[in-house]
Design brief:
Elements: E1 3-8, H1 15-23, E2 27-32, H2 38-47, E3 50-53, H3 62-73, E4 77-79, H4 86-96, H5 111-121, E5 128-131, H6 134-143, E6 148-152, E7 162-164, H7 170-186, E8 201-205, E9 223-231, E10 234-243, E11 254-257, H8 263-280, E12 285-293, E13 299-303, H9 313-321, H10 325-333, E14 353-359, H11 377-383, E15 391-394, E16 420-426, H12 429-446
Parallel strand pairs: 1-2, 1-4, 2-3
Antiparallel strand pairs: 5-8, 6-7, 6-8, 9-10, 9-12, 10-11, 11-14, 12-13, 14-16, 15-16
Helix pairs in contact: 1-2, 3-4
């Protein structure tokens, strides 16, 4: 049986989900660069032929570590689904002569390089400047038009995003973003291969979205993501995922599969994503491309990644379209030629709809809860106000232990302050939006109050 080295780090689809599907296609050797969730640890030991944790190895150079471990186990492929390990795994695969994202992987990770490539290829995107110092941010802010968004070049999950509305806010935003990146690194949410990545930023103009011109129903956010894969250099779109409106500044609250766009609109979005992905020159990898939807049919590419979408995007696709992207991609790396869709799948191809909700301590308008609460997964599932035909579960490995105080939402820290992750199945995409909207309003009434933390959040 073929052997795969699975490199685990923070982010991506739940490791318990992904590891199960890789193990169904190969003998798996696990290299864990960050701690495994408690709910996964025992199962990983049973599923894998070997488990090496970061603490067990002399890390040294990360690419060397991955390549050496792959040689030791005789791996036929090396895979990761984590944003923070994509570049290192791609380079290790190149050294080993194995399939991977290729030398261009860094272009799909460093937002400065990504945006520069798109600028040369004429891909529509917000105006931007790369910045690495406070002085460079000052200079960039004088060249761009307010409001501006400062974001870390190597971040994920909206971490360290800061909106700047006037020149007076430039330096405060700079200090806050840098502090959040430093804190995120201590939690394992940071680039693992590139030294000093936490010091790299871009600042961009904020373009105005217009969801109501793209969706018939209410409650949708003004951007979508095109989920896909690159097969030997050829981009293969799989489907589109939609969003609910973000929480300020731009923290994702919920993702919905499929995005309920019309056929013509979907074709235009996929064509833009194709241009953005192909400009990067990737070889073999999953892709996740985010596109902002504006008025009068305007669109801008926000970013792409050389991996599948995180949170529950991949499980949602499997539930709705019956495609095991993790297993199929494993087959691709092992030269088994999986049957990728011939075109991007649409709502007409779907069996129902699915969505995932990040639980943050804010209401539907993004305002903080009036008091502190403790996380209780069973109470959420039991009391969620769902419509007929909908079911809800909680993703244990992506949620806090029951009884833990829900963190106060920090706009700069983004998803780092989440309490839980919920997965919902419904009959149609609009039902997912409806149920999540109701659940967000109900959560402060469902979750027990935390008497030890006082009243004010």
């Amino acid at each position: 049986m073929s052997k795969v080295l699975y490199v685990h780090a923070k982010g991506g689809p739940p490791v318990g989900y992904a590891l199960t599907r890789v193990a169904a296609r190969s003998t798996v050797h696990l290299l864990a660069l960050s701690e495994l969730p408690v709910t996964v640890g025992v199962d990983a030991g049973q599923m894998c032929a070997s488990v090496v944790t970061r603490a067990d190895a002399d890390r040294g150079d990360l690419v060397d570590l991955i390549a050496d471990r792959a040689r030791e186990v005789g791996a036929d492929a090396v895979v990761t689904f984590s944003e923070y390990a994509v570049v290192a795994v791609a380079e290790a695969a190149r050294r080993l002569g194995l399939k991977g994202a290729g030398a261009a992987a860094e272009l799909a990770r460093d937002k400065r390089l990504m945006r520069a490539v798109w600028e040369r290829h004429g891909v529509p995107q917000p105006r931007f400047r790369a910045v690495r110092t406070a002085a460079e941010l000052d200079a960039a802010a004088r060249e761009l038009s307010y409001p501006l968004l400062l974001k870390a070049a190597w971040s994920a999950g909206s971490t360290a995003h800061q909106i700047i509305t006037t020149p007076a806010g430039v330096q405060e935003a700079w200090q806050r973003s840098r502090a959040v990146m430093a804190q995120s690194a201590t939690l394992g949410f940071a680039e693992l291969h590139v030294a000093g990545a936490g010091e790299d930023f871009i600042v961009e103009e904020i373009v105005t979205g217009c969801a109501e011109e793209w969706f018939d129903g209410a409650g949708w956010g003004d951007y979508v993501s095109v989920e896909g894969v690159v097969v030997d250099g050829v981009f293969r779109p799989v489907c589109l995922s939609g969003r609910m409106p973000t929480v300020a500044p731009f923290t994702e609250r919920a993702g919905i599969t499929p995005a309920d766009l019309g056929a013509e609109a979907q074709e235009r979005v996929v064509a833009l994503a194709r241009g953005a992905v192909e400009a990067l020159g990737l070889e073999n990898c999953g892709t996740h491309t985010e596109i902002k939807l504006g008025a009068d049919g305007r669109m801008w590419v926000i970013e792409t990644a050389a991996r599948f979408g995180g949170a529950m995007t991949v499980p949602q696709i499997e539930e709705v379209f019956g495609l095991d992207l993790v297993g199929m991609f494993t087959d691709q790396l092992l030269d088994r030629e999986p049957a990728w869709p011939a075109r991007a799948l649409s709502p007409a191809d779907a069996e129902g709809a699915a969505g995932s909700l990040v639980v943050l301590a804010v209401d539907g308008d993004g305002e903080p809860w009036g008091r502190r609460h403790v996380w209780d997964a069973a109470a959420v599932v039991r009391s969620a106000p769902l419509g007929s035909g909908s079911t809800l579960s909680v993703v244990a490995e992506s949620s806090l232990p029951d009884g833990t105080t829900v963190p106060v939402y920090d706009p700069a820290a983004g998803a780092n302050t989440m309490a839980g992750l919920c997965l919902l199945s419904a009959e149609v995409p609009q039902a997912v939006v409806r149920d999540f909207t109701a659940l967000v309003d109900a959560l402060p009434h469902i979750l027990p109050a935390d008497a030890t933390e006082g009243v004010t959040a």
